[in-house]
Amino acid sequence: MTLADPIRLEDAEELKRARARRIEKVARWLLPAATIALAVLLWDRVVVWNQIPHYILPGPGLVLQTLVKDWAMLLDALLVTVQITLMALAVAVAGGVGLAVLFNQSRFAEMSFYPFAVILQVTPVVSVAPLIFIYVENRMVGLLLCAWLVAFFPILSNTTLGLNSADHNLRDLFRIYGATRWQRLRYLQLPSALPYFLGGLRIAGGLSLIGAVVAEYVAGTGGIGSGLAFRILEAGYRLNIPRMFAALALIAATGVVIFAGLSFLSHALLHKWHESALKREI
Amino acid sequence: MAVTWRKIKPMGERPEILSMAAVNKVFNGQTVALQGMNLKVNEGDFISLLGPSGCGKSTALRLIAGLMHPTAGQISWQGGQQPGDLGVVFQEPTLMPWATVAQNVWLPYRLRGKSFVAVQDQIRLALKLVGLDAFENAYPRELSGGMKMRVSIARALVTSPRLILMDEPFAALDEITRHKLNNDLLDLRAKIGCTVIFVTHSVFESVFLSDRIVVMAARPGRVDRELTVDAPYPRGEDFRTSADYAALCREASAALHHAMGDAA
Fold it and tell me: Helices A190-219 and A71-105, interaxial angle, to 10°?
């Protein structure tokens, strides 16, 4: 064989690998969709075969019907919950990042106040929430405070870790080039912390939803301006189980949307340079 | 164009730019990292600090870089040190992964408050000098190890500093890439006439590159002797395979062993 001979571009192994890639591409979407569909079908069949009454376990069809029927009321509740969740997340970002920067800039501030952050984190929010609603007049502020308590810590601890993990040689380089403290923070530490912060943000997104729901359970006030958690409680008292399921589905969907949104944000910010967002060629 | 094209004068006619006088550095009040180091750096010198690990060559570099201060002795810049007088290349490329190649090279200027547009020409020129003008907008992860090192060199010379410090910059690269970068570094020096202090533990590299080799010994870290490599530049592959080069390497190697023998 000489170099002039045409080169075979494919062999059995490569073809097999290409086929496996194609299958995986389809399976990545198809498999989860199929399993969920199967689970819903099974749920439906179990209800029908065992003739379970709808006030014990409604079938998926009835839940969907209720969702449509009660849509106006559930949508209002959803908007309230989403609003609290997003506001809590925003405050958690501001508080978490702010505290992380403060701790990073001042060792003494960190030594003094870090224990408070840990205490707030390890105390279950359900046990603090009743007190909060005694001391805080405004219900909305109380809910926000509860959700914030749950959500800020992952952002604080991740961002702190990120700010401290800037490359040591780069730190030296910044010193050699006479960077100010502010320049070092702005051009070196904050970009270094970004992937860590985004990791914390994804956790905090889920937690702020949990915080909002739990706080509402504790607050328990009804009427206008109630969120999904209150609707679930209320429906429970009335043995309106289908509506409980419908509200539950909305909460779960909200969580999924928040997670997907934050994952997308993370990808958009990191895909150009960070290892976590890179695709391996082989 | 802000890049100063200096002309390298013959040795003996070069003006002094920096001197170290009886510099000591002691860590934790007990470890003597550097003892009584004297060194005069003249404009256009290519000085290698050669020695075994623990001989204080990196300590000397960090002292000159101002990352730490001598326990005793003086380090003084002729005419005082101005911002932009110093360029540094570490063993790792030390690039910011979130910034493009051009933005990385911009860093020394950026930290002095200069906008990208104001120094665009210098950035382009520095990248052209290291042969990466086509990669301005690439991210570091898209480059090979050798190319990242070139970006690091471009960043060190973008302000046309009076002195460039290099701390074993090519130690982590493969042999072929290292040779290529050694050749290119000498071309670069011939073009812009930069002054370099180059830390290495390779006898071959130090002989190929430098006109002065400072051989250092360990425990305590100190200068053992200084060699002059009086082979003419430009040096290329011919020099690398010449009998002169082999003889100079033998001499430097003997000096290194002398320094290590003393320490043992």
Answer: 140
Of B86, B99, B141, the CB nearest to A176: B86
Residue A276: name the closest of A197, A205, A159, A189 by CA.
A197
Nearest to B231, CA basis, from B251, B214, B209, B256: B209
What three-state secondary structure class fits B223? strand
Contacts of A274 in chain B (CB under 8 A): 97-98
| Contacting residues for B179 by C-beta, under 8 A, at least 6 apart | B240
Partner residue facing A167 (CB), from B86, B94, B112: B94
CATH of residue B64's domain is: 3.40.50.300
Provide CB contacts within 8 A for B182, sequence distance 6+. Answer: B170, B205, B208, B209
- The torsion angles phi and psi of A59, rounded to 5 degrees, stand at -75, 165
Cα–Cα dist A158/A205, whole Å: 14
Q: Do B97 and A274 touch (CB under 8 A)?
A: yes
Q: State the helix-helix crossing angle for B120-129 and B145-157, rounded to 10 degrees.
A: 130
Beta bridge partners of B247: none
Tell me which residue of B189, B153, B97 sits closest to A276, measured CA to CA.
Answer: B97
Domain boundaries in chain A? 1-51, 60-277
Q: State the residue for tokens 């991210």.
A: B139
Query: Domain of B76?
Result: 29-85+165-170+193-264
Look at residue B77 and tell me if it is in a domain. yes
The DSSP secondary-structure symbol of B73 reads E
Within a domain: B122: no
Cβ distance A177 to B139 less than 8 Å, yes or no, reads no
**Complex ipTM value:** 0.91
Q: Judge whether B69 is closer than 8 Å to chain A, CB to CB.
A: no
* Count of the separate structural domains present in chain B: 1
Asked if residue B111 lies in contact with residue B99, where contact means CB atoms within 8 angstroms, the answer is: no
**DSSP letter for each residue of B239-255:** HHTSHHHHHHHHHHHHH
pLDDT of res. B264: 44
Cα separation, B87 vs B91, whole angstroms? 14
In this structure, is residue B224 part of a structural domain?
yes
Mean pLDDT of A85-89: 94
> Average pLDDT per run of 10 along chain B, which is 264 residues long?
70 91 92 92 95 90 94 92 90 94 96 95 94 94 94 94 94 91 92 93 94 92 91 89 92 91 54
In angstroms, rounded to a whole number, what is the distance separating the alpha carbons of residues A132 and A153? 18
Any idea which architecture A60-277 has in CATH? Orthogonal Bundle (1.10)
- Which pairing describes strands B46-50 and B212-217: parallel, antiparallel, or unpaired? parallel
Tell if the CB–CB gap between A176 and B67 is shorter than 8 Å. Answer: yes
**Residue B223 domain-assigned (yes or no):** yes
Of A179, A194, A273, which is closest to B111 when you measure between CB atoms?
A: A179
* CB-based contact B88 A278, cutoff 8 Å: no
Residues of A at the B interface, defined by Cβ within 8 angstroms: 167, 169-170, 172-179, 183, 187-188, 191, 194, 272-275, 278
